[in-house]
Amino acid sequence: MSRLVRAKQACIVVRGQREKLISAEARVLSQAELARLRKVAEGLAGILKMIARKGEPRAILRDDVAALLRDDLAAIIDGFQDRKPERTGTTAQSSSAALVAPRQLVELALRRLEDPKLKIVRIPELVRSLDGKLSVAEVHHALSEAADGGAIELQPDAGSEFLPTEDAALCPAGPRDTLFSCARLLSP
């Protein structure tokens, strides 16, 4: 078992209260991702400790927990997408589409990039953040799917003359020769 782990042909994972030996091709967190997850757990433990204080009952806002978890989950998934397989000569796919559906990547990026006050994301910024993971067409398709499914709202630009040419090229076409330049999440 140790020989396989040292040769990077297998790894030991913790599943519940048990350890299992699995293929090195499995999707596991890197040491950096584990460190980030540990920080999230420590942050949550600190919040839960404050809530458990004696005296008046305390609570935490759902949005605060969602924001804490959302950003870190997106970073962990993004980190996995950026990682190349350590072994050479394997046939494992490393494309983001094979690991996480384009719509999921787009929705995670929307959550990460969302303006806290306006609650919108500029689509050119979204497309640029996914460069190397998804093509512009894949982002547009995922945005369309999410809008059709009611998860997001696509908003047209106030006037395409205000949009720089390089940004306009990254925006999906809207009705009557308009461009969708912003997206707003409808579900938390």
What does this structure look like?
The chain has helices spanning 2-6, 31-51, 62-82, 96-99, 102-113, 123-129, 136-148, 165-168, and strands at residues 10-15, 18-23, 121-122, 152-156, 180-185. The protein is an alpha+beta fold and 188 residues long. The strands form 2 sheets. The protein has a 3-stranded antiparallel sheet. Strands 1-2 form a two-stranded antiparallel sheet. Helix 3 (62-82) packs across helix 5 (102-113). The chain is flat.
The percentage of residues in β strands lies in: 5-15%
Shape: flat
Kindly state the mean pLDDT as a whole number? 78
Radius of gyration over alpha carbons? 21 Å
Coarse structural class:
alpha+beta
Helix and strand run? HEEHHHHEHHEHE
**How far apart are the first and last residues' alpha carbons, in Å?**
44 Å
Counting copies of identical and different chains, the oligomeric state is single chain
Catalogue the unreliable spans: 81-99
- Number of E strands: 5
* Spatial order of strands in the largest sheet: 3-5-4
> What's the helical proportion of residues?
40-55%
Q: How many DSSP H or I helices?
A: 8
Largest sheet: 3 strands, antiparallel
List the helices and strands and how they pair.
Elements: H1 2-6, E1 10-15, E2 18-23, H2 31-51, H3 62-82, H4 96-99, H5 102-113, E3 121-122, H6 123-129, H7 136-148, E4 152-156, H8 165-168, E5 180-185
Antiparallel strand pairs: 1-2, 3-5, 4-5
Helix pairs in contact: 2-3, 3-5, 5-7
